[in-house]
Amino acid sequence: MAARRKEDRISCASLGAVHKHFPVPDCIYRRSLVSGKHLYDSESAIFSTVHPDEAQLLADLCALIEKRLPPHAQLVCPMALGGHVDHRLTRAAAEALGFPLWFYADYPYVLRNAGDIPSFLPPGWERQVFALSEADLQAWVRSVAAHQSQISTFWSDLSTMEAAIRGYYHDSGGVRLWRQPNRGD
Q1: How far is CA 2 from CA 7, 26, 155, 183, in A?
Q2: Is 29 helix (H, G, I), strand (E, B) or coil?
Q3: How far apart are CA 75 and CA 66, in angstroms?
Q4: Is 103 strand, coil or helix?
Q5: Which residues of 70-171 form beta strands (DSSP E)?
Q6: Per-residue model confidence as pLDDT tens digits over 138-166
Q7: Disulfide engineering: 32 pairs with which of 53, 61, 71, 157, CB 3.0-4.6 Å?
């Protein structure tokens, strides 16, 4: 857990972002308070529904997020493409808070699930595309590269990862975000 959080700090710093770690570890590290067993002990469990032993976690996440947000915040959260349980929880918490919301297609899961995007959006949501400079695109690559423990899960090496990010960016025409129309924000 410490190594993954260190990677996250490096990744955020490479983007000029400030990290906020909550006291909730990644799903692969969470254990049942009832049995002590790992809640997500297989790939199929990680890409499944939230474990029943974590029924209180959504409310806890909402409280953690809400107390750190300014009153007029806009949230950008994963659609939960691919079904990763942590992305599902993040999305559910963001939706429950009622702040203006933007979705992004979970990269790299979107590479395998791009056709699913319409089914992950509420009706009427609008797509907006944002261009990145070459420096911004390089920062994205550096940010992903900082997550060294996860590179081999998705790519054979760093140059393959960079080519995949650049290909996705160019095929998408930029960075795509979706938002609810006419929210007044």
Answers
A1: 9, 11, 23, 39
A2: helix
A3: 11
A4: strand
A5: 75-78, 101-104, 126-130
A6: 999 999 999 999 999 999 999 999 999 99
A7: 53
Residue 140 CB: number of other CB atoms within 10 A?
19
Give residue-wise pLDDT tens across range 73-94: 999 999 999 999 999 999 999 9
Would strands 175-179 and 101-104 be described as parallel, antiparallel, or unpaired?
antiparallel
Question: Tell me, what's the pLDDT at 96?
Answer: 95
Confidence category of residue 71, pLDDT binned at 50, 70, 90: confident
Beta carbons within 10 angstroms of residue 160's beta carbon: 12
Evaluate whether the domain defined by 2-179 bears CATH number 3.30.830.10: no
Report domain extents, the chain.
Answer: 2-179
